[in-house]
Specification:
Strand content: 5-15%
CATH topology: TIM Barrel
Bound molecules: iron/sulfur cluster
Largest sheet: 10 strands, parallel
Radius of gyration: 19 Å
Mean pLDDT: 88
Order of helices and strands: HHHEHEHEHEHHEEHEHEHHEHEHH
CATH class: Alpha Beta
Length: about 375
């Protein structure tokens, strides 16, 4: 397929061939700026120039019995994170309010662990119901492996979306985790879809996978019609079982990956997720040409650039935000706001763990 036809074909529902998808990633025959132009045409067709901001709430941190080797919350990790069990309902509701007021389009609650008990699913359902009744905000939940019965309960309380990342290809999966399988993850996604939930499922790149592994994930998410696809760039923190494998990532490769996912998943929300600061560096604004979404306020356990810088980047690049409040209003709100985050410059060069204050900004001090 000719490069100048990539956008037109994507919008018309034609998938890239495996050969073209690999050519996008290896960079030998596909010019980067022309590729971004093609990806932008597709993004613009479905999302205009709007950026959807997501804010994460790490609602249960650490002590996970699984051994995902990239994850600082895994039992096998030696990273000194701030462990805590389930945040109480009041704290989670306060953080939902905070996310809404910060202009978030979607509030994402993440609970570390293999999966919840039936009791925990009911508790989560009660919290989701209250958030949906109180704030006009989209809610996404990430809570490990779930059964059909679980996803039915969550759909009943109007959960909008379930997050469960594939993370990598079926072939590479055993290299990053041994306590559950790629198929386990797929089963959870299929249960969610059967219950009528939207699915959010993404990838972590830079873990030692091949280009074909990345292409396989993009193709699988196309097949699943995932509504939302976070692209995470592996961030090494000393003590991570996987080690510092991400050297092969550079800004150009990251942009090529974002463009590949956009062209194969034209109407999906493509998110520049964890690690954008470190791996896209000064090219983050170009990432908005294929991607239409990002996280603000950092990630599960690591800080990101502060909200003002993120909003300013969106404005400087000529984009706007999907929020009840305008971009100007949000910028002035954050311009002089006290941030919970450490020196934002640090987030662009290496992964910095969040402090307890950053993980639990609305918790009452003891
Ligand atoms: S199941 Fe989730 S929280 Fe647990 S180790 Fe894997 S990625 Fe981390």
């Amino acid at each position: 397929m000719k490069l100048e036809k990539f956008a037109e074909n994507s919008i018309n529902g034609l998938a890239l061939s495996n050969e073209d998808a690999n050519a996008i990633l290896d960079g030998t025959s596909v010019n980067l700026l022309e590729l971004l132009n093609q990806a932008y045409q597709v993004r613009k067709n479905y999302f205009g120039n709007e950026v959807r901001i997501h804010i994460l709430n790490n609602a249960k941190n650490g002590k996970c019995p699984e051994d995902c080797s990239y994850c600082v919350q895994a039992k096998s990790s030696e990273v000194p994170i701030e462990d805590y069990s389930f945040k109480d309902e009041e704290e989670i509701l306060n953080e939902a309010k905070r996310a809404y007021e910060a202009g978030a389009y979607r509030y994402c609650m993440v609970f570390a662990g293999r999966g919840p008990t039936k009791f925990r699913v009911q508790k989560l359902a009660g919290i989701i119901k209250k958030i949906k009744e109180t704030y006009p905000i989209q809610v996404c939940l990430s809570t490990g492996l779930l059964s059909q019965e679980d996803t039915d309960i969550l759909k009943e309380v109007n959960l909008d979306r379930l997050n469960h990342n594939l993370n990598t290809s079926e072939d590479f999966y055993p290299s990053i985790c041994t306590t559950h399988t790629y198929q386990d993850r797929l089963n959870t996604l299929k249960a969610a879809q059967k219950s009528g939930l939207q699915i959010c499922s993404g990838i972590i790149v830079g873990m030692g996978e091949t280009n074909q592994d990345i292409v396989d994930v993009a193709m699988k998410l196309r097949e699943l019609k995932a509504e939302s696809i976070p692209i995470n760039f592996y961030m090494y923190v000393e003590g991570n079982q996987l080690g510092p494998k991400a050297e092969e990532l550079n800004p150009e490769k990251c942009l090529r990956i974002l463009a590949l996912f956009r062209l194969l998943n034209p109407n999906a929300e493509i998110r520049m997720a964890a690690g954008r600061e470190i791996h896209l560096r000064s090219m983050q604004a170009l990432g908005l040409y294929p991607a239409n979404s990002l996280f603000m306020d950092g990630y599960l356990n690591t800080i990101g650039t502060n909200p003002f810088q993120t909003l300013q980047m969106i404005q400087d690049a000529g984009f706007t935000v999907t929020a009840d409040k305008g971009l100007e209003e949000l910028l002035s709100k954050f311009e002089n706001a006290e941030t919970t985050q450490s020196n934002p410059q640090d987030a662009s060069s290496k992964a910095i763990l969040k402090s307890l204050k950053e993980l639990r900004p609305t918790a009452q001090a003891n």
